[in-house]
Amino acid sequence: MNLQVEDYQGQRLSQAQPALAKACYQIAEAAYPTGSPWSEATFLADQKMPQSRYVVARADDAIIGFVGVVQVLDQVDVTIVAVHPSHQHQGIATALFRQLFSQMPSPVSLFLEVRAHNQKAQTLYKKLGFSTIGRRHQYYRDPQEDALLMKKTL
């Protein structure tokens, strides 16, 4: 597999529309147990925001995973993460986050929410240096569940 990790923001993110939104939706639809938490239109709207940034993994020119964030000054909110199921457990998410971290100004705080029962994701985020700082009760729907709020400072 020929893996490439690319950073999309600003003009480059705008030029990738709408194909990137469609690819992200399709990956999220396959990766999340209850389907994508966002519609294709939501991905498109998110990617049009000037504060948005996407780090995308490609294998043989096909998008196989991504991390979406919104950055305002020194705060970065990780809004969505997905890796296609056929490429999970191969270090793709780690490569995506490492690329994201390498492009962040310092100091910066990154925040994310993760389902309370999603131990695999929590383990990944802890290995990447995130720590749990709080809990959002009944944050998720379908099924309803608490979210753990995690933070990493670079």
Automatic annotation (TrEMBL):
Subcellular location as annotated: Cytoplasm
N-acetyltransferase domain sequence ranges: 11-154
Cellular component GO terms, alphabetical: cytoplasm
Catalysed conversion reaction: N-terminal L-alanyl-[ribosomal protein bS18] + acetyl-CoA = N-terminal N(alpha)-acetyl-L-alanyl-[ribosomal protein bS18] + CoA + H(+)
Entry GO MF terms: protein-N-terminal-alanine acetyltransferase activity
Purpose: Acetylates the N-terminal alanine of ribosomal protein bS18.
Entry protein name: [Ribosomal protein bS18]-alanine N-acetyltransferase
